[in-house]
Amino acid sequence: MDxxxxxxxxxxxxxxxxxxxxxxxxxxxxxPLLAIADSERLREEDPFTGLWTTxxxxxxxxxxxxxxxxxxxxxxxxxxxxxxxxWGLQVWKAPLPEKVVSRSLAAWDTFYDHVHALLxxxxxxxxxxxxxxxxSYNHRRGGPEGPPAPPAENPEVNLGTGSMDRQRWAPIxxxxxxxxxxxxYQGRHLDVRENVKFFGGHFPTWIHQTFPQNVCAVAIEFKKxxxxxxxxQPDRDQLFAIGQALxxxxxxxxxxxxxxx
Length: 261
Known about the structure:
By secondary structure, the protein is of the alpha/beta class. The chain contains six helices and seven strands, in the order ββααβαββαβαβα.
């Protein structure tokens, strides 16, 4: 039996953490249609990001692969149909039947309906709500033995704030940057920069369009320095350290929200 597309774990407080690309599974009817290998799918997914969402009381977890349904893209682009949609990768053996696409998009509709209800409920309880939209990205696209992408253009942590009213949410974003940058990360500081590699996808854009006065969604993209992006093997110490850095950042952002409240 197919598992749900996503999972909501509800808690108390104004902080939400999402890991929409953490999932790897695809529903049964899609398996014989796939042309892409599991390892290729995994390389473009965001494994382990769901672990980091534990720093927030309310969590949104993607349980299925973005190659089945990308919850961080607009509805018309949420199902990858051509290689142009998916980094040049051939995902399907043949064009998907429309009834199959429709079933995927129905899950997209349900997800956004539920997130709307969730955020509307939180906004009734809190003057401001913050969503950490957690992702990861590749930096060794030249192969497992190839050189990493230039650090100047690929920060360890990229904060995407392109769709928000940056001035309005300055106290939140600046505190987040401060906490992540100054955290003692295994005896050093993380390279944290804003809008260098990514500006944020559809999910934070939709949040800012729907709740412009009350919800701040920050896309937090971690370069995959914490794992081997070609084998999928993680560095457990790095995973834990990133989780602790995010927890410290969440506490700092929580203090800013308390000041508003």
